[in-house]
């Protein structure tokens, strides 16, 4: 499908599923190299709802034991960040003394990731790493280290592969970009 309509906006085809899967293969290989022989069982922290598909695809490729947890945060209304990160559902487990790999769909301004790292440090996680499927490098101004980035994209609003526009668009397997024409 070349174009899709969600609510009042039209989005055009942007990143094919095959390219996303290849990028996930590469990032999973790096994580496997870092953890395969480490003897640690890290927590994979899925940031709901956007990361559901990415977390599932990433997990299938991991060759070491992980413990899966979730948290639900939100900051976007429509196509822009409100600047205010809300915890809509708290951590589903105890991270005390554990190593955590945050699994995010996209890092934009970095406010969400910075907030989440603070939450995990306050809960006494022993180590926090960040893995994101997408990064908008022009927008990211925070100091939090992004350990694993699958793909970089320009500063435009996108949907698909878990990402939504006001709740819609998460189920598309490819990524679509806001069509301004
Ligand atoms: P940040 O806090 O500005 O880094 O934004 C991160 C969060 O905003 C992500 O977890 C997404 O839920 C959402 N977000 C950022 N950019 C987009 C986008 O282009 N499409 C859909 N959601 C986005
Ligand atoms: Mg998200």
Describe the secondary-structure layout.
Layout: E1 3-6, E2 9-15, H1 17-35, E3 43-48, H2 52-60, E4 67-77, E5 80-89, E6 99-107, H3 111-122, E7 127-135, E8 148-152, E9 158-159, E10 175-178
Parallel strand pairs: 3-4, 3-6, 6-7, 7-8
Antiparallel strand pairs: 1-2, 2-10, 4-5, 9-10
Helix pairs in contact: 1-2
Inosinic acid (IMP) binds at residues 50, 75-76, 81, 104-112, 157-159, 163.
Keywords:
Rossmann fold, 22% helix, four-stranded antiparallel sheet, globular, binds inosinic acid, 10 strands, 181 residues, alpha/beta, binds magnesium ion
Describe what is shown at a glance.
This protein is of the alpha/beta class and 181 residues long. The protein is built from three helices and ten strands.
Question: How would you describe what is shown here?
Answer:
The protein has 181 residues and is an alpha/beta fold. The protein has a single domain (16-154), classed as Rossmann fold (3-Layer(aba) Sandwich), CATH 3.40.50. The chain has three helices and ten strands; from the N terminus they run E-E-H-E-H-E-E-E-H-E-E-E-E. It has helices at 17-35, 52-60, 111-122; strands spanning 3-6, 9-15, 43-48, 67-77, 80-89, 99-107, 127-135, 148-152, 158-159, 175-178. Helix 3 links the parallel strand 6 (99-107) and strand 7. The radius of gyration is 16 Å and the shape is globular. Bound molecules: inosinic acid (IMP) and magnesium ion (MG). Residues 47, 50, 105 line the site of magnesium ion (MG).
């Amino acid at each position: 499908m070349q174009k899709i309509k969600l609510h009042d906006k039209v989005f055009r085809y942007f990143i094919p599923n095959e390219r996303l899967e290849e990028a996930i293969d590469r990032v999973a290989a790096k994580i496997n190299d870092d953890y395969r022989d480490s003897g640690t069982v890290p927590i994979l922290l899925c940031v709901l709802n956007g990361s559901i598909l990415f977390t599932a695809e990433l997990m299938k490729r991991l060759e070491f034991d992980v413990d899966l947890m979730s948290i639900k945060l939100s900051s976007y209304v429509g196509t822009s960040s409100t600047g205010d990160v809300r915890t809509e559902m708290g951590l589903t487990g105890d991270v005390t003394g554990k190593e955590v790999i945050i699994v995010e769909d996209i890092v934009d301004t970095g406010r969400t990731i910075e907030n989440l790292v603070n939450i995990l440090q306050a809960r006494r996680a022993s180590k926090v790493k960040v893995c994101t499927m997408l990064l908008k490098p022009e927008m990211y101004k925070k100091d939090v280290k992004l350990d694993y980035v699958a793909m970089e994209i320009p500063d435009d609003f996108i949907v698909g592969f878990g990402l939504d526009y006001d709740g819609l668009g998460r189920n598309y397997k490819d990524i679509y970009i806001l069509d301004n024409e």
